[in-house]
Amino acid sequence: MVHPALDPEVEAAFWHAASGWQRVEGREFPTLRSPDGGPCLEFLPTDEPPEGPRPRLHLDVRPLPGDPQAGEVERLVTLEAQPVDIGQGDVQWVVMTDPEGNAFCVLRTPDA
């Protein structure tokens, strides 16, 4: 997956802390990968800021079973994410923005 970013290092640092995915060494651009394998998330430089709350790439964050959604939102705020109202109304997820203003959702766990 490719994520255009004004500052790829800042975005990669945020998503590394948010997801726990590890930095892949030896790549031209900052790249993260799940410790279990799977796809990589590569942060490519761009000069174009995101347009409003519409993200360049939409990621969802789901807390682990038993972890409260509110706790995950609080943790992400400490990493510089911000809750945002994009007109979503009364829904079961929380919309937030990453350091560059890209919207993402924090979902509830199935047992919550």
From TrEMBL:
Pfam families (alphabetical): Glyoxalase_6
SUPFAM superfamilies: Glyoxalase/Bleomycin resistance protein/Dihydroxybiphenyl dioxygenase (SSF54593)
Protein origin, superkingdom: Bacteria
Positions of the Glyoxalase-like domain: 5-107
Region Disordered, annotated ranges: 46-69
Compositionally biased residues, Basic and acidic residues: 51-61
CDD domains (UniProt xref): VOC
InterPro entries for the chain: Glyas_Bleomycin-R_OHBP_Dase (IPR029068), Glyoxalase_6 (IPR041581)
Protein name (Swiss-Prot/TrEMBL): Glyoxalase-like domain-containing protein
Source species: Angustibacter aerolatus
Lineage: Bacteria, Bacillati, Actinomycetota, Actinomycetes, Kineosporiales
